[in-house]
Amino acid sequence: MYQFNYHRPATLEEATRLFSEADDGFYLSGGQTLIPTLKQRLASPSDLIDLSGIEGMKGIEAGNGVVSIGAFTRHAEVAASGVIRETLPVLSALAGLIGDAQVRNMGTLGGSVANSDPAADYPAAVIGLGATVHTSSRTIAADDYFQDLFETALEPGEILTRIDFPVPDRAAYRKFPNPASRYAVAGVLVADFGGSIRVGVTGAGPCAFRATAMEEALSADLTPAVARAAEVPAGNFNSDLHASAEYRANLVRVMAERAVSDLLAE
Amino acid sequence: MSDTGIGASVRRREDVRFITGSGRYTDDINQPGQTYAVFLRSPHARAKISAVDSSAALAVNGVHAVLTGQDMAADGLGDLPCGWLVKQKDGSDMVSAPHPPLAHTVANYVGEPYGIVIAETLAAAREAAELVMTEFDELEPIVDLTGARGADQIHEGVSGNLAYDWELGEKAATEAALAGAAHVTRIDLTNNRLIPNAMEPRAALGVYESATGEHTLYTTSQNPHLERLILSAFVQVAPEHKLRVVAPDVGGGFGSKIFVYAEETAVIWAARKVGRPVKWTADRSESFLADAHGRDHVTHAELGLDADGRFVALKVQTTANLGAYLSTFGSSVPTYLYGTLLAGQYATPNIYVEVAGVYTNTAPVDAYRGAGRPEATYVVERIVETAARELGRDPAELRRLNMIRPDQFPYETPVALVYDTGDYEASLDRALEHVDYAGFPARRAASEAAGRKRGIGFACYIEACGLAPSQLAIQLGAGVGLYESGEIRVNPTGNVTVFTGSHSHGQGHETTFAQVVSDKFGIPFEDVEIVHGDTGRVEFGLGTYGSRSLAVGGSALVSAADKLIAKGRKIAAHMLEADVDAVEFSDGQFLVRDSNQALSFGEVAFAAYVPTNYPTDLEPGFSEKAFYDPENFTYPAGTHIAEVEVDPATGVVTLVNFVAVDDFGHVINPMIVDGQVHGGVAQGAGQALLEHGIYDDFGQLVTGSYMDYCMPRADDVPDFLVDTTVTPCTHNPLGVKGCGEAGAIGSPAAIMNAVTDAVGDNGLSMPATPEKVWRALHG
Description:
- The complex is a heterodimer.
- Chain A is of the alpha+beta class.
- Chain A is built from twelve helices and 14 strands.
- Chain A has helices at residues 12-21, 34-39, 75-80, 82-87, 89-95, 101-106, 109-115, 122-128, 142-145, 212-220, 224-229, 245-265, and strands spanning 5-7, 25-28, 47-50, 60-63, 66-70, 132-135, 139-141, 146-148, 151-152, 160-166, 170-177, 184-193, 196-202, 209-210.
- Chain A has a five-stranded antiparallel beta sheet with strand order 4-5-10-6-7. Chain A has a four-stranded antiparallel beta sheet with strand order 11-12-13-14, with helices on both faces.
- The longest helix of chain A has 21 residues, at 245-265.
- Chain B is α+β, with helices and mostly antiparallel strands.
- Chain B is 28% helix and 23% strand.
- Chain B has 19 helices and 28 strands.
- In chain B, the strands form seven sheets. In chain B, strands 3-5-1-12-9-10-11 form a seven-stranded mixed beta sheet, sandwiched between helices. A five-stranded mixed beta sheet of chain B has the order 7-15-14-13-8, with helices on both faces. In chain B, strands 18-26-27-28 form a four-stranded mixed beta sheet, sandwiched between helices.
- In chain B, β26 (637-646) and β27 form a beta hairpin.
């Protein structure tokens, strides 16, 4: 780890001001990506701005068909939250699948979504549930948020503060974990909003995306077999040591098939 | 049987400190004035080191020195030797390329150390290491094992990158028998490269006392005396009597801590150069790059059978990746620890094996849990299972037909070993019963009905342990004898301090050896202390590997104990005014036969140190040592059966059932033996399903962290059903064979036989990852 200046601001305004004043400032949330990166000396920020002291970025609320979660909420809190289990069980189940217990006790919703690792779990929920991302300066629709590999609509210095998840009639998430890292090789969230189906996919492409052809097919006929047979945009899928693009395309269909089975069994 | 004696499942006394964080590992030891080392490592798989500019690094506050391979060579330090000389087919010696501890001319694998930075703090050393400017001239790396022999030469004088071309067995007879066989099964196999991953990374702390010239090296070693011998006799860091090597608590080794590495060599040398203690502890990334790796074979094998299904010949051709240099025992693993085991449990009359040991621009490859024997078992048991499938024979019964029968022992194999004893069918039968073999078709049908495929696979393995009869080993090329030392010092108050040349890095010696000694003397378990891992305290010994500790080290303790009992009888006879021949020792008492006269073990010990009423022709004191040199290897053997389910949609293999029935001879502590089998099977499951060390075409290790290198976790394995049968070893006093490696030896073949059974593709290679299995099912 290289040396850096450490800050723990109490307000968003102070945080963004510190960022703008720093030569090369980094925000620190749960640190589950950033801290290992620093330890390996792969990043050398001049200033580390710890967001854990900002009260407005915490808390879980539900009402009016929306579950609203502060960005600094840890994965373990989402997994264990009675409110979320009651109103949006798919999200607590998804959070319980992230990494391992140590990661879930430190990692945060906002950190994961702001980082937009192509294999992270939360982006599937943001996309699949059509969430609204609140930041220090604006709101961003899920469909506009994820842009490319580790690239989001966030501007430099902009802080993700809260995410509003619309509550569907029913939903399910299935994930094929990388056996080594337990990140998603493919993760699919299927949500039913009054017969209109949304499908959020993570792990397969450069960033989370909607499987629109599958959505259309499932909106017409919500069965596992339709999910398994659906077209997926495999042309830009990731191919690596653990899974080729072709195999990932298969996994997306199989995870979707199983998610639809789970959803229908609710 | 007492509740702490031989055969009792005594809880491991060392676990109290391990589990409560009170262990004392190398990194826990600190010395006044200690400095910290960071190694300079090659980022390239193959490159000339043209220039090293350390001026900026030396300017960092707190930096003491930047030492390079050139500095080490200038100080006259020798190369790291390979301790086993393999003779080639034509009788010539293997070609051992020079292996300088720190590279000074050419770096030959990514992570190879070529310098050491020493500073007041670890942070300063890291910062300085980044400021060292090294000019490399990159060369084309040779990474692909199968192409390496045709590629250009990595080391001067090593044509075809061939360290050796070795053979064992009768070629002509084997080929003739194959030609006349009713059926020949052919198979091509890959034994995947593994990266050891002990829980504690390697570490070293070097201390030099200028006033006395004494060097002390604390390091993570499985064999501190061998470390000292090599560092003094070959590398010449310090003379042997001025070098003390201490291997304190060591957190796992699995073979990877047998070897003498660059880092501890550099640390003890640097401590003298800078006049301050120097400490280095590997981080996990360094462990991946620079610990010796394991396995990495490519093999073609042919098995001939007669019309009845009897094996008539086995021919095996293997290319073994030795990495960039011959590590300490790297040459022996794919030869004498591999080819000699190719008879397996079978009476195959003709066997021939040839092995090409090849250099590549990858980390050195050496012994890893099982060391050659998992590779041999994999060949034999995969080809036997494949033959059974080709012939439509029951794989258990085809094995049974070919097994060496109990009345054939001692049995001399065509590949240089003499098995002393065994009952292979007993283990097979017990395993078949435990796995409910008869119920398998119904279980398979149930899996099919649930949309999953099910397979069952066998491995009837044998291993040669208890390394080793010294003269035989030296004849075959070993550079040292492979006996073990043991010393028992009975204290005047009657409790006992035991010194063993063996080393525990997880095996539980402090418990098992105390059981043996307390049982032998009839004294409380608590009265026995086991000391190991310090050349300053313990007699020269050979350490722990090859499942040898109990069979060889335990036997040395029995010899030492017998000497003490003999002396005690003389003392007791004098004190009780009886004839020595009339004095017996039993249950902690020296007794005069046919009388009620007796002295306790403690009374005799006290008399030996306070010799008031004592034989005039006997030395005082009650302390004896022994060196035990085994007359043969031991041959643990058993049957492992795996059952797997495969999800055809994803290719995921689930190990649903695993039965291991092993014959380890007599068992001292059944709980510890079960634990050894559990761990070994988990490691074997890792090899079969998860682990794979992969270099890309540029020689970069792409599986260099736990993000990509998949270690087995608790949820990857089922509850194991572990059982033992017993045929006592015929040639050591405890009748024990060794249990440390069996789990990792039998399980990969059993699991892969089960996976290939489920998938219906005998060509599937390890690790059977989901995509590979999915492709095998879907083309």
